[in-house]
Design a protein that fits this description.
single chain, mainly alpha, three-stranded antiparallel β-sheet, 9 helices, disordered N terminus, EC 1.15.1.1
């Protein structure tokens, strides 16, 4: 997103435009664990391809799209800006989603959350088992490629489950703040689970990093 206008004075335009030109490109984040760390639930080959090839492609394509968008902005070419929106949404979403996903997983994950997050899950879904069943069902039910999410509805002060198609980012398309994302693109599981998505979803609960999900919840409640 490019914030080049200031409500205070036109003199303020210079700094944001300058920073736009020298903006750091997006980079592929390091995984917080080894590729094989989530085995046997998600094997090393999947993790390596998913991170170093798929996520890397979103990052590279996002940088290219932003470069073109910057040129279109400079020229005042609104048609080009509009035509670049799908690429920005898809690759930007892919980068946002995967950056969250890697931290949502941990070799020391699994089990159930504790504290405030668990209280909220019980309050909003009745029980952890009920929540788990609902998020699994929503994720299994995604047609084609997409994501299942646990998000926080800030306006209503409650947890909510949602599905997003393709790489649509949760917050940018629904307004919900992402806490836990489950990638159900086939590249996330096919090498190990073939086309049996429910088996992958059953396994992924063993590596969910509840500390990360809880800290995301604490942050968005502030």
């Amino acid at each position: 997103s490019f914030c080049v206008f200031s409500s205070r004075s036109s003199a303020k335009l210079v700094a944001p435009l300058g920073s736009l030109v020298s903006r750091q490109k997006h980079a592929l984040p390091d995984l917080p664990y080894d590729y094989g760390a989530l085995e046997p639930h998600i094997n090393a080959e999947i993790m390596q391809l998913h991170h170093s090839k798929h996520h890397a492609a979103y990052v590279n394509n996002l940088n290219v799209a932003e470069e073109k968008y910057k040129e279109a902005l400079a020229k005042g070419d609104v048609t080009a800006q509009v035509s670049l929106q799908p690429a920005l949404k898809f690759n930007g979403g892919g980068h946002i989603n995967h950056t969250i996903f890697w931290t949502n997983l941990s070799p020391n994950g699994g089990g159930e959350p504790k504290g405030e997050l668990m209280d909220a899950i019980k309050h909003d879904f009745g029980s952890f088992a009920n929540f788990k069943e609902k998020l699994t069902a929503v994720s299994v039910g995604v047609q084609g490629s997409g994501w299942g999410w646990l998000g926080y509805n800030k306006e209503q002060g409650r947890l909510q489950i949602a599905a997003c198609a393709n790489q649509d980012p949760l917050q940018g398309t629904t307004g919900l703040i992402p806490l836990l994302g489950i990638d159900v693109w086939e590249h996330a599981y096919y090498l190990q689970y073939k086309n049996v998505r429910p088996d992958y979803l059953k396994a992924i609960w063993n590596v969910i990093n509840w500390e990360n999900v809880s800290s995301r919840y604490a942050t968005c409640k502030k």
